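hi! just following up on the protien thing from before. the input was this:
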Amino acid sequence: MSYNTTTTPQTPPLRPIHFPDAKSKPQLRIVDTSINPDEAHCLDEDDIDNQPCSPPQSPVSSSPWEDASAASTSASIPSTPTTQVSIHEPLLSQHASSKSQTVLSEPITKEIKIPSESFGGPITPLPPQWNLRGDIYTFSFWTSPKAARSLPEHAYSPLEGVTSFADEAYSRPAGGLSMIQILSYRDSPIGPYDEMLVAPGSFDWERTEADGKKTRGCNPKITRIYVSTPNSCFNGRTNWNVPKHLAKFVWDHHADGTTTIKIYPHDDPSNPDESQPSSRPLFQTTFKPMSLVPRFPFATSWADRLGFNTTLVMPPLPAGNGTYGELPSTNRWIKLETKQYCSRSTAGWYDIAQPDGGAGCGGIENFLPWLGRWQVGVKMEDAFLSFDVPQEAWEKGDKLDDATTTSDDKNEDDDGKEEELRNKPEAGKWNTSFLHDYFT
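and the predicted 3d structure came back as:
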């Protein structure tokens, strides 16, 4: 598979910011930091319509599956190692009268750096379909409805955790089959990179169709995910709504065949621009293969055949203050089916005891409150993965009809709902209660 060889720095796809109450047009000031500051120029209001760049915009993908080359030319940004973009947003004076309002100009400055080649190179929007190849370290576990309603704070990144992405009125955790995966891609459309994701079960959601009818579902959701390059971070957010953030991955392959992996996230609350990794890992694990178990083929599609729904439904994402412009927002929901397959998988144990008693994840010794230290999982060697165009996309999600149920009502229903999840087989599919008993 050929890699993208673009070397010219590019900026994320952009969309306009509208100022309905403003009496004058905003000004876009582009500063090339490699030249003398006195040489920088500001576009006057009379000239802004004659410029090749569009009005003041923010790094948000409005049409994530358009041609990448067209999207990347929506603004003229100097090709320098560091580009500073200042948006002068007209603000109305609070003391101005309704008949004669004074327009103030207050600059909002955002410095966007161009990732170095060693960090994956310049951000290049690349729409799906993506085909990838690499190793996957994965283990599954069961999340009960009661545990799902009490997800720990670190189940979400600090950015998404305080926004509608984590709002249980629109996407309410329901529990079920869950997983943690750590992936090392050696071949992808944007080159090699590493990834770690947490998907703690399924989430209820609802939407209103054009004819007024309600559609409701319960699908897995990735609540937290890390990658090692800005390119992967940006494209994962714009293409598939996955809440990616940057992290440093440390791999330690031991002589006895075990592998220890540590993930140091950039989205530490003390690091608002996510420019540096945290000094301590959010998550670490050691994979120990079972030497007496032969290797075997494995595919995530098997879970569907066993009666589990593995199709993701992801809410819109908020914009973040990333150093490289790698944290754009999205404005639609998506439904996505992912595929993973390999011909040689190795069964093994995952030791998920966290260092310092879980200091990096809220003091939880085994990362999530309901998990034991040792988890059974697999290592998928030289696996093939595909991420296609989302099956569906819609602009608005509805509040769930029973989102106002009190906590006491929920606790009374927990046992019955969990029993239903365990014992109710779907028509034409296997009963899956044995997997619950196995993983717990």
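DSSP finds six helices and 21 strands in the chain.
The two ends are 40 Å apart (CA to CA).
cheers
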